[in-house]
Every structure is written in C-alpha cells, then in structure tokens.
Amino acid sequence: MEEKRDGAPETDEATLRRDMDRRDFVQWAASLSIGATCLLGAVTAANAVNPPGRSIDGKTKMPPTALAAVADLPLGKPQLFAYGDDSLFLTRTEGDKIIALNAACPHVACKLHWDEKITQYACPCHASFFKLDGTKISGPATRNMDPAMFQVAAGKVVVSGFAENA
Q1: Interatomic CA distance for residues 151 and 164, integer angstroms
Q2: Cα–Cα distance between 114 and 111 in angstroms, integer?
Q3: Which residues contact 100 (CB under 8 A, 6 or more apart)?
Q4: 99: left (phi over 0), alpha (psi -120 to 50) or beta
Q5: Domain spans in the chain, listed from the N-terminal domain onward
Q6: pTM of the model
Q7: Backbone phi, then psi, for 70, in 5-degree steps?
Q8: Distance in angstroms (rounded) separating the CA atoms of residues 23 and 7
C-alpha cells in the first residue's frame, strides 16, 4: 500500500466496498428474518404476561371517570357521554338525583337516543322504547336499559362501569 502525504496508508476502493454476492444476501436476509421473528415473539410474550386492558367482550376497561358536574346537567333532560368504547346517558332529576344508563339498547345494542317529542329513549333499529328511568315501555327488548355504576364525589358524577340488568 502506498502512503498518503499525511502519513496514513492509502486504501483502494475495492477494499472499502465489497460487493454483496448471493450467499451474503441470503445470510443477511436470514439474519433479518430471524431478528424480526424474535422481536415479534418478544412482543407477543410481553402482551401475554401483561395483556392490554380489555374486558372479555373486547371493550376497553375504564377506570372510574368523572364525566360531568351534577350542577351542569340540565334538569330532566338526558345528556349523552362517551365512556371508553361505550356511551351512556346521565340525567339529573328533582332533588339532584342522578340516573345513569347505558346508551346501548338491551335488545341488540343499537345506540339509543332521547326523543324529546315523546320524552322517551328510542331505539332506531327495532323500535324499543324506554322511560326516563330506563324502564322498558314497548318493543322487542326483553328488559330495561342497563344501569351504569356511579357515585357522586365532590359534586361530579363518577362512572365506574355498567351493571347488567336482568
């Protein structure tokens, strides 16, 4: 090898750059594949040890969540709130009593809406109707609306899940 002016040995381009032949490529591809498989296996094992927060029906488990201040809820008019993958209605009645109901129809889980004209919850899928307190009036639903579990803390409605109504 020749020396450069600064005293460092000179290298030719062929020494610095080596062309990849078929064998090198196959080894590189195999190493990449094994590495990706190991990474995927590690992620799968980590999820098995510490699964994501989902319930048996695939919905996100929610911690107790303050959804609204009691004073902010209009009297006698249900308000729709998101709670994880679900929705629920909160209603303030006389004496600041709270009604909390799952917004899914107990028939086939279509999303209910409050029909102000008839003052009832109505199901757009199969025409089930419910009173303000969730009691079934008519339709194919075989039970009342499912209540939400909640408590009032520091003037706020804190929801902690749903109880299935039988």
Answers
A1: 17
A2: 10
A3: 88, 89, 90, 91, 147, 148, 149, 150, 157, 159
A4: beta
A5: 13-49, 65-162
A6: 0.64
A7: -55, -40
A8: 37
- Tell me what pLDDT residue 42 has: 84
Residue 127, token pair as written in the block? 């025409």
What the block records as the tokens of 159 is: 């929801």
Give pLDDT, residue 100: 94
Residue 135 and residue 57: Cα distance in Å, rounded? Answer: 25
Domain 65-162: what homologous superfamily? Rieske [2Fe-2S] iron-sulphur domain (2.102.10.10)
Token readout for 132 is 């303000």
**CA R_g for the chain:** 31
118 — pLDDT class (breaks 50, 70, 90): very high
Return the HEC string of the chain. CCECCCCCECCCHHHHCCCCCHHHHHHHHHHHHHHHHHHHHHHHHHHHHCCCCECCCCCECCCCEEEEEHHHCCECCCEEEEECCEEEEEEEEHHHEEEEEECECCCCCCECEEECCCCEEECCCCCCEECCCCCEEECCCCCCCCEEEEEEECCEEEEEEECCCC
